[in-house]
Design a protein that fits this description.
single chain, about 270 residues, mainly alpha, three-stranded antiparallel β-sheet, 3 strands, transmembrane helix, transmembrane
């Protein structure tokens, strides 16, 4: 979920240096354009005077020069927020195991469970695609940072620089939003904390639904009676035990039905 930092991408510094060299070469043009804009005050235009243009020239140059440093700090802040949201409850191995269990249970479940599993697959693929796109966009914004931030120098080009700040905030904000969605899914739906249709869903499997032990009342009534030596009750008991075991087997609890038949068979 985290975005690679500048130290993890040594090649990004060389690309940024190329953009910075272009800014240094074009900085004089921005100064010239600003001077022309000031000289046209009270003649061609009356909106921008020296006090509006003069602060912009050095601020734009400083912001352009520090863009790589600022982006690195912003990325580290976003990664820290992501780790804070996820905490210690989500790690790549645990998420992988949970997703694998969910897929297996979905494939062995009913139509509704299969549909939920398919949605889960689509969401997982979309998460990977969004991650790749987000990283590529972030890298592109880092490389173009000096070229866009120098646009603070003139009021006519200032919207481009403001757009760069908003794009960086959006790209890294999506990372935190994805972390919130992931921790919510892992801690609720995939952990069995959500009750749907009268059942507790755990990794898209069903834990002890009411239908799995639909014959428990009848089995208990038979056990309360004199089992030993009474063939009709013994036959009824074996039938109910087998039916309950079959229900258990169908609810993704392999082996439990056989053990139930073996234990109860000894009493018959």
């Amino acid at each position: 979920m985290s975005t690679p930092t500048i130290s993890d991408l040594p090649g990004i510094g060389e690309l940024w240096n190329g953009s910075w060299e272009i800014v240094v070469a074009a900085y004089g043009l921005f100064i010239l354009a600003g001077a022309i804009l000031v000289m046209s005050h009270e003649s061609i235009q009356t909106r921008y005077s020296l006090k509006e243009i003069a602060p912009r020239i050095p601020i734009a140059f400083i912001a352009s020069a520090l863009s790589l440093f600022l982006v690195d700090k912003i990325i580290r802040l976003a990664n820290g927020l992501t780790q804070g949201v996820l905490g210690g409850g989500v790690s790549p191995p645990s998420v992988g195991d949970t997703m694998t269990e969910a897929f297996n249970n979905a494939a062995a479940g009913g139509l509704f469970t299969i549909l939920v599993g398919l949605v889960l697959v689509v969401v997982g693929v979309a998460l990977l695609v969004v991650y790749a796109i987000r990283v590529v966009i972030t890298l592109g914004l880092i490389v173009c940072g000096p070229l866009l931030l120098i646009c603070h120098a003139l009021p006519h080009t200032d919207p481009l620089a403001r757009w760069w700040w908003r794009a960086i905030a959006a790209a890294l904000g999506i990372q935190v939003a994805q972390a919130v969605v992931l921790i919510t899914a892992v801690r609720t739906i995939l952990s069995g904390s959500v009750h749907l249709f009268g059942s507790t869903l755990s990794a898209l499997g069903t834990d002890q639904p009411p239908s799995a032990f639909g014959h428990s009342e009848e089995v208990r009534d038979v056990l309360a009676g004199p089992v030993g030596g009474v063939e009709p009750q013994s036959h009824r008991l074996r039938q109910h035990v087998k039916q309950a075991a079959g229900e258990v087997e169908r609810q993704q609890q392999p082996g439990l039905g056989q053990r139930l038949v073996a234990v109860m068979g000894g009493r018959c």
